[in-house]
Amino acid sequence: MSSESEQTRELIIRRDGRYPVEAFMFLQEGMARAVKATYGEKYASRPGVDRHVTGRQVCLSLRDLALERWGFLARNVLAHWRIRATVDFGHMVYLMIEHGLMHKTDEDSLDDFRNVYTFDDAFAPQDCFELKE
């Protein structure tokens, strides 16, 4: 992303005010992870190729990334960013879509991000610390 488009994105995020810039950086990482998981490393990095992923795929990727990065603290980090449900990821994506920084298909909807999982289930301590015998 060019410096100018990064500044534009940051300005949009700050004006909106719902989520901090760091949350959008995390979103970008999760989306890149979803693209890689869906299309593979080689195809995911080819310029000019459509690499659409669904809201569900994005949410699952973000869950895995959060657990990998923060473990049992994942829910707290996301809450600090005012992200308390999967639909918050959708609000972030659709903010970028509204401003032409991301694209969607006609089949895509904010509802694709609703109730993909609950944070209580996804970030429960027992899921973070599996004891092996």
Description:
The protein is mainly α. The protein has one domain (3-128). The chain has eight helices and no strands. The chain has helices spanning 3-16, 21-39, 41-44, 55-70, 74-80, 86-98, 119-122, 125-128. Helix 2 crosses helix 4 and helix 4 (55-70) crosses helix 5. The protein is globular, with a radius of gyration of 15 Å. The protein starts with a helix and ends in a 5-residue tail after the last helix. The model has no long low-confidence stretch (mean pLDDT 88).
What's the gyration radius in Å? 15 Å
Count of DSSP strands: 0
Q: What's the overall average pLDDT, rounded?
A: 88
Structure annotation, total helices: 8
End-to-end separation: 46 Å
Percent helix: 55-70%
Unreliable stretches, pLDDT < 50, 5 or more residues? none
How many individual domains? 1
What class would the helix/strand composition place it in? mainly alpha
What percent of residues are in strands?
under 5%
Label this structure with key terms.
single chain, 133 residues, mainly alpha, 8 helices, 0% strand, globular
Quick recap of the structure?
Helix content is 61%, strand content 0%. With 133 residues, it is an all-alpha fold.
List the helices and strands and how they pair.
Elements: H1 3-16, H2 21-39, H3 41-44, H4 55-70, H5 74-80, H6 86-98, H7 119-122, H8 125-128
